[in-house]
Specification:
Shape: elongated
Number of domains: 1
Strand order of the largest sheet: 1-2
Distance between the termini: 14 Å
Oligomer: single chain
């Protein structure tokens, strides 16, 4: 049971640590507001205040860790699906947030930002794969648990 819990929270905790490091190191160098939405051509068309962006970047993985831990602890039949879904969403959000933050370090204004569609697709595909793998690992480790 403890191995299963550890597997469920390992990914979001690791993401939370990386996101916190990015927020501490790069946060002061980001423009305020930060570009968070882009057109297909990579031009920014939506912003979020720097404090709100950094708060979300750090909070999402930690909240997902709590949700995943709770799901595995309560052990309902659908916990592995929930863990996989939460893992995919949290990984996608955090990975893309880190890419967005890293791409805007040192910019004077959010209007100077540019996003690559290839980075977005690659980051999303990787995040979905890692999040799905987290759900699969939890399901495999918890399959020997006799509880329903």
């Amino acid at each position: 049971m403890w191995r299963c819990r550890g597997a469920a929270v390992a990914l979001p905790v690791l993401l939370g640590l990386v996101a916190a490091a990015v927020a501490l190191v790069d946060g002061p160098s980001l423009p305020d507001p930060v570009a968070v939405h882009f057109t297909l051509g990579g031009r920014p068309d939506g912003t979020l205040g720097r404090p709100a962006f950094l708060t979300l970047l750090v909070a999402v993985p930690w909240i997902s860790a709590a949700v995943m831990y709770t799901a595995v602890t309560l052990r309902p039949r659908w916990s592995s699906s929930l863990v996989g879904l939460v893992g995919m969403v949290a990984t996608s959000f955090t990975a893309l947030g880190i890419v967005v933050a890293r791409s805007q370090v040192g910019l004077a204004s959010w209007t100077e930002a540019h996003a690559s569609l290839l980075r977005f697709v690659a980051g999303t595909a990787a995040a979905l794969t890692v999040g799905g793998a987290a759900g699969w690992v939890v399901q495999r480790q918890g399959s020997s648990d006799p509880r329903p």
